Amino acid sequence: MIENDQIIITKTVSILANEVELNPIRAQGSGGQNVNKVSSAIHLRFDIQQSSLPDFVKQRLLESKDRRVNKEGVLVIKAQQYRTQEKNRDDAIARLKEFVLPAFERQVYRIKTKPSRSSSRKRMDEKSRRGKIKSLRGKVRTDGE
Questions:
Q1: Is the entire prediction scored with pTM above 0.85?
Q2: pLDDT tens digit sequence for 7-58
Q3: Residue 61: pLDDT above 90?
Q4: CA neighbours within 13 Å on the CB side: how many for 126?
């Protein structure tokens, strides 16, 4: 996953490996005899503000409501799904990529438009027509009563 001391996010963007802190820790849960001896889980820490990512990407990542980003702007990912440290390291880096990649997508904003005069007129005519139809649904009165 790490090639030439870089984590490749897209073809043009990569994160330097020294910007990501990978610490082995003991995994939680069941694991048999090795659970208290082997540090197979990985704690990944990535400081968004100090990274070499473009400023607009940093801003989007910091504004995201992801609970893995703490108040200091550090992304913390804990990978402990696999039994080996290498697989957990690859999983943590893959999850880092999944977190960063959507920030590069361009956001499409809606352009406000006004309805045309003819469409407004048609709408009002239809409302008037429906109102007349509904007014005929009342009780039938005869003048003799």
A1: no
A2: 777 777 777 777 777 777 777 766 556 666 667 778 788 887 777 777 887 7
A3: no
A4: 6
Q: In which band, very low, low, confident or very high, does the pLDDT at 95 lie, cut at 50, 70 and 90?
A: confident
> Which token pair is 21?
């802190």
In a domain, residue 116? The reply is: no
**Structural domain containing residue 22:** 2-104
Number of structural domains found in the chain: 1
Q: Is residue 125 part of a domain?
A: no
Decide: helix, strand or coil at residue 103.
helix
**35-48: burial string, b at 16+ Cβ within 10 Å, e else:** eeeeebbbbbebeb
CA 68 to chain centre: 12
Could you tell me if 34 and 25 are in contact, meaning their C-beta atoms sit under 8 angstroms apart?
no
DSSP 135: H
User: 62 in a domain, yes or no?
Assistant: yes
